[in-house]
């Protein structure tokens, strides 16, 4: 008797563990019940997807039936989509049409989100707003201490992202003030910086691409955004393929899968072939074992390995600059990129070889010495980046102990840096074999 009870206990534990790995169904939660009811009123029907919490990706959608390649995952009617058209048909529309110079489609959507969030229970969009994240992990929202731990090229982009939101806020204050007749409270208190940052991150991380006709009341920036309730619960995987587009006949946004998905598994879509730095910058997350991921080499790091006493150094740097070979130089899972090796070959040219630079840019070879020097320098840069990454990972683990409040953000940068380390170690191995070969 005792034995069988143990077996049942083990079975139960296994079953519990399996359901935890598959995902914990959340469709009974009040916020999702209200969201589904609200979507149904707008013509959305869905029998196969359930909101769930997943171990690796957090909140997402689980399928209640096995999906085959070519199956329709989801079809969201136009009435459910939040676009600039939605904004113009709201009470904000008249103010936007009158405002000069015209606001951007992005600002119109941000303004609408802030106003509807402020309206609370009175907002017809409340069921959707209630399931949106309260905070985001885009670099713009990170503390300076955390931004400092990012790789150099991403740190620069993170600072640019922060400045862009600050500039949007500064330049939009007069427009926000013009909306005062719509509110009992002071608009400065409603449309504050943190509200705009939240709205900007909502639009930037959650919109689907949907082209809208040009409207005179908006600036010339492309009007290509649509917020898609429920659909935006689908998480990203670099290893799946989907087809997504607005169906003009059915007037709905559709996603079709080109991959299989087992019953009770998370349904994943692909946001594009993005590396981890791009995923963190645009969406605020990192994908483990991302085949598209790479480690960027800044121009500063590259030039550290070439003597300033080389009389032709400036000429070589000019050649690289003129032909756009000082940007997007990377190490990937397959070693140094062709662009990185090409830049290194140009910088490694001897005085008598400089005239051959065009041949190198076209993929040709000048000399065995040049090839060998480029590979040896690539290996040095790779080892330098490995040491730098290990040093940052050490800093992160110390900060995690000292600054409890920064833990979630530090964990994100730790994931990015750990993935970078794996790529660099793989590249070092490949370069070691190539150097031995030459």
UniProtKB/TrEMBL annotation:
Keyword Transferase: yes
Enzyme Commission (EC) number: 2.1.1.364
Pfam families: Rubis-subs-bind, SET
Record field: catalytic activity: L-lysyl(4)-[histone H3] + S-adenosyl-L-methionine = N(6)-methyl-L-lysyl(4)-[histone H3] + S-adenosyl-L-homocysteine + H(+); N(6)-methyl-L-lysyl(4)-[histone H3] + S-adenosyl-L-methionine = N(6),N(6)-dimethyl-L-lysyl(4)-[histone H3] + S-adenosyl-L-homocysteine + H(+); L-lysyl(20)-[histone H4] + S-adenosyl-L-methionine = N(6)-methyl-L-lysyl(20)-[histone H4] + S-adenosyl-L-homocysteine + H(+); N(6)-methyl-L-lysyl(20)-[histone H4] + S-adenosyl-L-methionine = N(6),N(6)-dimethyl-L-lysyl(20)-[histone H4] + S-adenosyl-L-homocysteine + H(+)
InterPro entries according to UniProt: Rubisco_LSMT_subst-bd, Rubisco_LSMT_subst-bd_sf, SET_dom, SET_dom_sf, SET_MeTrfase, SETD3_SETD6_MTase, SETD4_SET
MF terms (GO), sorted A to Z: histone H3K4 monomethyltransferase activity
Chief location bin: cytoplasm
GO biological process, one term: methylation
Subcellular location per the Swiss-Prot or TrEMBL entry: Cytoplasm, Cytosol; Nucleus
Domain SET positions: 42-272
Record key words, sorted: Cytoplasm, Inflammatory response, Methyltransferase, Nucleus, S-adenosyl-L-methionine, Transferase
Lineage: superkingdom: Eukaryota
Any one annotated GO CC term: cytosol
Assembly information from the UniProt record: Forms a ternary complex with TBK1 and ZNF268; the interaction with TBK1 is ZNF268-dependent and leads to TBK1 monomethylation.
PANTHER family from the UniProt entry: SET DOMAIN-CONTAINING PROTEIN 4, UNCHARACTERIZED PUTATIVE METHYLTRANSFERASE
Family under the similarity heading: Belongs to the class V-like SAM-binding methyltransferase superfamily. SETD4 family.
The protein, known as: SET domain-containing protein 4
Gene coding for it: Setd4
């Amino acid at each position: 008797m005792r034995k069988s009870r143990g077996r049942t206990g083990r079975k139960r534990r296994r079953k519990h563990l399996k359901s935890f790995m598959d995902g914990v169904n959340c469709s009974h939660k009040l916020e999702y019940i209200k969201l589904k009811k609200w979507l149904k009123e707008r013509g959305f029907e869905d029998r196969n997807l359930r909101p769930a919490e997943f171990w690796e990706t957090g909140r997402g959608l689980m399928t209640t039936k096995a999906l085959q390649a070519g199956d329709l995952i989801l079809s969201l009617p136009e009435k459910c989509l939040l676009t600039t058209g939605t904004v113009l048909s709201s009470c904000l529309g008249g103010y936007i049409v009158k405002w000069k110079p015209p606001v951007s489609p992005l600002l119109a959507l941000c303004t609408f989100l802030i106003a509807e969030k402020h309206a609370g229970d009175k907002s017809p969009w409340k069921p959707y707003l209630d399931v949106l994240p309260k905070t985001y992990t885009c670099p713009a929202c990170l503390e300076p201490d955390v931004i400092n731990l990012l790789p150099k090229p991403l740190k620069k982009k993170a600072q640019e992202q922060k400045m862009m939101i600050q500039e949007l806020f500064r330049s939009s204050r007069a427009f926000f003030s013009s909306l005062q007749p719509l509110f009992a409270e002071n608009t400065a208190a409603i449309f504050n910086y943190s509200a705009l940052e939240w709205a900007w991150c909502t639009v930037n991380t959650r919109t689907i691409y949907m082209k809208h006709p040009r409207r005179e009341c908006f600036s010339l920036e492309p009007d290509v955004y649509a917020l898609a309730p429920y659909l935006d619960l689908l998480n990203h995987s670099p290893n799946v393929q989907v087809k997504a587009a607005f169906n003009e006949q059915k007037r709905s946004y559709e996603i079709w899968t080109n991959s299989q998905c087992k019953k009770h598994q998370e349904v994943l879509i692909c946001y594009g072939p993005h590396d981890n730095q791009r995923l963190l910058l645009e969406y605020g997350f990192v994908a483990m074992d991302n085949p598209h991921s790479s480690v960027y080499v800044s121009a500063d790091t590259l030039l550290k390995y070439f003597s300033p006493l080389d009389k032709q150094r400036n000429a070589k740097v000019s050649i690289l600059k003129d032909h756009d070979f000082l940007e997007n130089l990377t190490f990937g899972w397959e070693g140094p990129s062709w662009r990185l090796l090409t830049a290194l070959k140009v910088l490694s040219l001897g005085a008598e070889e400089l005239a051959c630079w065009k041949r190198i840019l076209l993929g040709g070879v000048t000399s065995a010495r040049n090839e060998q020097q480029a590979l040896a320098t690539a290996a040095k840069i790779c080892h330098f980046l490995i040491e730098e990454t290990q040093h940052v990972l050490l800093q992160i683990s110390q900060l995690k102990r000292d600054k409890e409040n920064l833990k979630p953000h530090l964990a994100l940068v730790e994931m990015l840096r750990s993935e970078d380390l794996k790529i660099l170690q793989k590249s070092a191995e490949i370069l070691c074999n190539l150097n031995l070969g030459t």
